[in-house]
């Protein structure tokens, strides 16, 4: 890269920050559609209207760009600060869980089926790349620890109790599975409404199922 490239990696951009944002959005869409391995830096730059030096200039490499996309995608689904604030509400744990599920499911329902944050995270979890470790460390584990504290309180069990951990997995798995396989479920269960109007029944079902399951598991272990 020449000194001129470093000073102005994308002469057509209004500002470097604008180029970086466009690259992130283009990369998100292309990685979601094709996966990390099949996507190329060239097509990302072309889609973003940037020159070929732009990815290295703003992100260091295609690998680093992909890692940034994953972290951004997961944060858009539920930011850590937002989750921490929800789980710090001065209400019973059942109500905190209800607020969490309401916000997450509403966000997933109101985003289009082709929304790249959902698709890129689902694709990565189904076929992990080396970037998954960074996503786990920076986004998934911190959020998991926040959520599992509320689940453990709900179950009146220690936060590291196996039952609390498994219940946390079960709650999240319901949401992930629903949206990961939504297109298939629409064909398998055509009797159900899968439009945005069904958001509240879906949320209420997952909440009811989760609370009942948590109580049943907790009762077994307390006994």
From TrEMBL:
Instruction: Output the Pfam families linked to this UniProt entry.
Output: CecR_C, TetR_N
| Record PROSITE patterns | HTH_TETR_2
Q: Which residues bind DNA?
A: 40-59
Ranges for domain HTH tetR-type come to 17-77
Q: Indicate yes or no for the key word Transmembrane.
A: no
Q: Which UniProt keywords apply?
A: DNA-binding, Transcription, Transcription regulation
Please give the name of this protein.
Helix-turn-helix transcriptional regulator
């Amino acid at each position: 890269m020449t000194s001129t490239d470093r000073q102005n990696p994308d002469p057509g951009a209004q500002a470097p920050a604008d180029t970086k944002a466009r690259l992130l959005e283009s990369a998100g869409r292309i990685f979601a559609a094709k996966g990390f391995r099949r996507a190329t830096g060239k097509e990302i730059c072309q889609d973003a209207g940037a020159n070929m030096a732009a990815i290295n200039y703003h992100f260091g490499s295609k690998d680093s760009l992909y890692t940034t996309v994953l972290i951004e995608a997961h944060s858009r689904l539920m930011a850590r600060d937002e989750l921490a604030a929800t789980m710090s509400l001065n209400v019973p744990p059942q109500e905190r869980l209800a607020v969490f599920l309401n916000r997450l499911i509403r966000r997933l329902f109101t985003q289009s089926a082709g929304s790249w944050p959902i698709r890129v995270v689902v694709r990565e979890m189904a076929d992990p790349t080396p970037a998954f470790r960074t996503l786990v460390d920076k986004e998934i584990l911190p959020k998991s620890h926040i959520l599992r504290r509320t689940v453990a309180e709900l179950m009146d069990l220690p936060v590291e109790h196996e039952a609390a951990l498994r219940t946390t997995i079960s709650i999240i798995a319901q949401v992930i599975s629903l949206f990961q396989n939504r297109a298939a479920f629409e064909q398998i269960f055509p009797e159900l409404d899968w439009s945005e109007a069904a958001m509240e029944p879906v949320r209420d079902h997952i909440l009811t199922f989760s609370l009942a399951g948590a109580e049943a598991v907790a009762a077994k272990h307390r006994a």
